[in-house]
Amino acid sequence: MDKFVKRPASSVTSELGEPSKSSGKVRKYDDSYIKFGFIENKDGKPKCVICLQVLSNDAMKPSKLRRHLETKHPDCAQKSKSFFERKREVYHQQQTTMTGFTTSPQKAQRASYLTAQRIARSKKPHTIGEELVLPAAVEICEVMIGKAAANTLKCIPLSNDTVRRRIEDMSCDIKSQLVTRLQTCPFSIQLDESTDVLNCLQLIVFVRYPWNGHFVEDFLFCKMVPGRTTGEQIFNILDNFMTETKLNWENCVAVCTDGAAAMTGCKSGVVARIKRMNPQIVATHCMLHREALASKDMAPDLHSVLSTVVHDVVNYVKSRPLQSRLFSQLCNEMGAGHDTLLFHSEVRWLSRGKVLQRVWVAQLAYLADVFNIMNELNLSMQGGYASVLEVSDKIKDFRGKTEIWRMRVLNGITDMFPQLTEFLDTNKLSVELVRNQIYGHLTALSEHFNSYFTDIDTDAWDWVWDPFVASSSARGLSAKAEEELLELSCDGSQRIRFRQCAHTDFWASIKEEYPELFAAASKVLLPFPTTYLCEASFSALTAMKTKYRARMHVEDDLRVCLSSIHPWIEKLCTGRQAHPSH
Questions:
Q1: Residue among 193, 243, 248 nearest 223 (CA)
Q2: Beta bridge partners of 204
Q3: Among candidates 305, 308, 304, 294, which has minimal Cα distance to 442?
Q4: Could you tell me if 281 and 327 lie in one domain?
Q5: Which of 109, 233, 343, 533 has the fewest beta carbons closer than 10 A?
């Protein structure tokens, strides 16, 4: 039988002596044990003690219970049974009240974490919780449910500092989970750097690794690069992170970067320094950047047309508000389908195709067509969870198309370029006017793609695409891996699973059953083909770190916003005191 009592500290001291201030202390007293905790004054001295009296098993004998009642509670010895039943109900009500008192702040704390997570993922300022989210939630609850329910929301802590602490807690938890995973499995990284609103250089790194039968992509870290952007500075940041988190460079199987000298320098670049730590690592130059470089050069006459449109017309109109308004008015009067122009910039994602759609001359119509096709190629290579296999096939397909286009242009056929064909037909012009320029540009384009994409050999990877068809043509595998590939190709149940899921998930799911074969396949599937994730995260960084939040440290917010790992909010709540002021 348990009994809660609240007694002055002086009375407990006089009966049991000076007690220890440690909560939960248990002392023998007569036939029962007393467990107590202290409520202290401001000066730290015990004010009163919350005691839990627990009777021993031996004391539960009816005779001893009667003796205890008559000696310790003589005023209740003659009370009826209904009196004790009523006391029991009151006691249970007190327990319910006490439980409700302690549970309400815990619920508010959990709600605070969940709201902070949403704030981070929406890239909004931390003050929005207290200024907008909570007042709106209270008003909605008051209108839809009632004022009493709305009042319970007011205890949710959502101040600016509280939201910041919640995000930091969740970021640390996500980072801890991710590092624990990476310590036991192979992984690849992609990295890129960009400047923020304060012109500070931010280095962002993403990671891809196998986990629970899937390949997972996740945000690793974002660090500011001090001083100059040298390969040594960037590598030191990477290496320090690997050392602090106890990650092994030998587990890093691939790295993907852009073509900057600081990244790809043969002696002092980041890739060269990483290869000194792990000579077996596979380095990939972002295929999106390579495509942009391959499409850059063109014949002088075509380049002159492009330069005139972009720099002398488009950017002239866009750089002056008056010219933009006049251009919009002109388009509306002409009944044009568009009334604005796009800035052209030498950025990572091609914008030339969309710019050139607005101009109608023969050479420009061809450039609009070909850059629209390249834009579609560019967009098809973007996105998460893309493998080198998929992107390489798209590049190979485009290279094959350029050969077909060259032959058709020589034969006077231009139907693969619809805007050029429409312009020529409308004005009753012959393709002879631009055939030489188009043929020369396609030839140069094909040569540039061949020179920038020399590492594409998808035939050697057919067994990764389909191990049940190309098992006999696998190259470069160890004897053990070849045996496992043969065993896999004869497994009918695995063949059915292969048809039902993505090929990356299939290979990740056989990691334990076919370790040698998985290790060989992961060298193809783990490397990033592009730095798309880094580029996309820079957009999130720009949305977070504005001129109004210029002093913000964005790593924790970016991790909570971009990570695919869910923080253990229940664990975080148990490690924090559930108090409305926190």
A1: 193
A2: 192, 222
A3: 294
A4: no
A5: 343
Examine residue 84 and state whether it is found in any structural domain, yes or no.
Answer: no
Contact present, 293 and 452 (Cβ < 8 Å): yes
Q: Which residues contact 134 (CB under 8 A, 6 or more apart)?
A: 115, 153, 154, 156, 158
133 and 242 in a common domain: yes
Indicate if 141 and 270 belong to the same structural domain. yes
Residue 349, phi-psi category: left (phi > 0), alpha (psi -120 to 50), beta (remainder): beta
Could you tell me the residue range of the domain that residue 354 belongs to? 292-452
* 48 lies in some domain: yes
d(CA 309, CA 303): 10
Residues in the chain: 582
- Is the CA virtual torsion 83, 87, 88, 89 positive or negative? positive
Do the Cβ atoms of 438 and 409 come closer than 8 Å? yes
Burial of 470 (0-12, 13-18, 19+ CB in 10 A): middle
Task: Identify the CA nearest to 265 among candidates 240, 229, 239.
Answer: 229
Per-residue pLDDT tens over the stretch 62-103:
888 788 888 888 888 888 877 788 877 777 666 555 444 445
Residue 248 included in any domain: yes
Distance, in Å, from the CA atom of 221 to the CA atom of 555, rounded to the nearest integer, reads 7
| Domain end marker among 78, 107, 138 | 78
Q: What is the pTM of this model?
A: 0.75
363 and 497 co-located in one domain: no
Inform me whether the pLDDT recorded for 182 exceeds 90: yes
Question: Do residue 502 and residue 465 come from a single domain?
Answer: yes
How many whole angstroms separate alpha carbon 462 and alpha carbon 159?
56
Q: Is 350 left (phi over 0), alpha (psi -120 to 50) or beta?
A: beta
Is 436 in a helix, a strand, or coil? helix
**What is the widest separation between alpha-carbon atoms in the chain?**
119
Q: Which tokens sit at 179?
A: 């590092």
β-pair partners for 255: 189, 283
Count: domains in the chain: 4
**Distances 228 to 194, 258, 347 between C-alpha atoms, Å:** 13, 17, 22
pLDDT digits (tens, 9 = 90+) for 268-316: 899 999 999 999 999 999 999 998 888 888 878 787 777 777 666 666 6
Which one, of 68, 37, 69, 72, lies nearest residue 52 by Cα? 37
Residue 86 domain flag: no
C-alpha torsion angle, residues 357, 359, 363, 365 (rounded to 10): 30
Q: Both 384 and 503 in a single domain?
A: no
Are 206 and 181 contained in the same domain? yes
